[in-house]
Amino acid sequence: MRFAPSPTGSLHVGGARTALYNLLFARHEKGTFLLRIEDTDVERSRDELISQILSAMEWLGLEYDEGPFYQSRRYDLYREAADRLVSEGKAYRAFETSEELDAQRKAAEASGRAYRYSGAGREMPPDESDRRAREGQRHVVRLKMPAETIVVDDLIRGRVEFPAEALDDFVLVRSDGHPLYHFCVCVDDTEMRITHVLRGDDHLANTPKHVALFRALGAPIPKFAHLGMILGTDRKKLSKRHGAAAVEEWRDLGILPEALVNFLALLGWAPGGDREILSREEMEREFSLDRVGPSPSVFEPEKLLWMNQQYIARMPAEEILNRSLPFSPAGLPEAEVARKAVELHRPRVRTTVEMGRALSSYVRDPAEYEPEGFRKHVKPDTAAHLEDLARRLEEVSDWSAPSTEAALRETAEKAGISAGKLIHPMRLALTGTTVGAPLFDVVELLGKDTTLLRLRRFVEAARAAAPQAPTS
RNA sequence: GGCCCCAUCGUCUAACGGUUAGGACACGGCUCUUUCAAGGCCGGAGCACGGGUUCGAUUCCCGUUGGGGCCA
Questions:
Q1: Alpha-helical segments (H) within A44-134
Q2: C1' (B54) to CA (A259) span, angstroms
Q3: Which residues 386-415 of chain A have a CB under 7 Å from nucleic chain B?
Q4: Is residue A231's beta carbon less than 7 angstroms from any atom in nucleic acid strand B?
Q5: CB atoms < 10 A from the CB of A15, how many?
Q6: Which of A55, A111, A228, A270 has the fewest CB atoms within 10 Å, i.e. is most exposed?
Q7: How many other C-beta atoms lie within 10 A of the C-beta of residue A147?
Q8: pLDDT digits over A313-357, tens only?
Q9: What is the pTM of this model?
Q10: Is the CB of A424 under 7 A from strand B?
């Protein structure tokens, strides 16, 4: 098996799924999986994209047994193969200029026929062809397509037929000597002894070309399996326009590689039963093309987020901490607090970005108070009540969730107000928001000093916002 | 334009001629609760359409429609 991306963009989720399925199939069948970089398109290929693709694959845990191989370093191989096909009469040189071809195309259009290359070069006697080549006349090399229907037995779609009329003698080597995509693919697949080509649906229509090429090369024809495309929520082929289409974007959004892999595995493949969360080992053990569907599927970020949350829910605290560290701008609180904070926030975050932010809040005071919540929960007498509360909390010696809660409820009762009148503004004081983990758990983790500090800072802010409210 | 592929809840999917069409995400409700989640329970939601084949079609065949891809 092989995964063969072109470094003309970063690895996107469609490519990642293709790579994953290749890997799963290879592992299941005890085969070999290799990586080949198809960088023959010199205008569009970029080196930094190659390293991005490699690191994205590594991040996802898509390890390959061989490679990466680079097509740009294999030109000799393609040149030899092209020469051989020409000398065997399976391909031929074509000397038409692009002006001549344009004219032919226009004429075909004008007469309302579909354009096909005339195949004029086919009939040229070999010695004339050789002579003109020796004289340095510009020419391309074209494959002699057979005049028969080409049948592809796709492992996912079954039998697909391509009538000969739809295929003309396509170009293998450009007039500047540059070998073209389909040609390199087949030469490499042959040389690398690929037995199963598992790739996106967008290549199905290219497959008859490949079959013809394999035959011309005298090579065994691999088995083909074409996956349905991955679509955006607008049902168009997934691309940058759809927001996060690249693997690294999901990484930066705080998605775990395990979750993304799991999600992609299920985009087209259905293991038996109602299982949704599968380990790599289970996937490798159970993957089968029989259970891969032919239809395209829409990439639904909501479900990926849910799956990520499932992985966060199951992961050891220590591990979550490690994964969230890059997203915690203020660093981590001390170990014991950090571990407890993970447990506290685990059920209410969906990404490691959110976890990182939550962890940061134990280290860094809130930069601002959510304005709407401030308006809602800060009344003229709030500052005074919170000040009473701070004084009362000062006296708490065994700082814990229950003891601080008792202190708060006592303060509220004395003041003749409901506990909520203190709880809500206090959450705002400590976290800057009106929603989040249970208040007294936060209080306990924050510790006495930080709690009182943030509370008093908030009292000042509340006073500043309502200076006209005198309270006794 | 030519050729090719695809079609079950909004989305991912199960079903391999006979099922009250199952599960998951999302959505709604209830529960828990100081807030928000998570969890538990409940609910609404689908076989694109038209012809065949068959005792019987979501399932097989053909067409229509819709979507997608490749080539130019």
A1: 47-60, 75-87, 98-110, 126-134
A2: 46
A3: 405
A4: yes
A5: 24
A6: A111
A7: 8
A8: 999 999 999 999 999 988 888 899 999 999 999 999 999 999 999
A9: 0.93
A10: yes
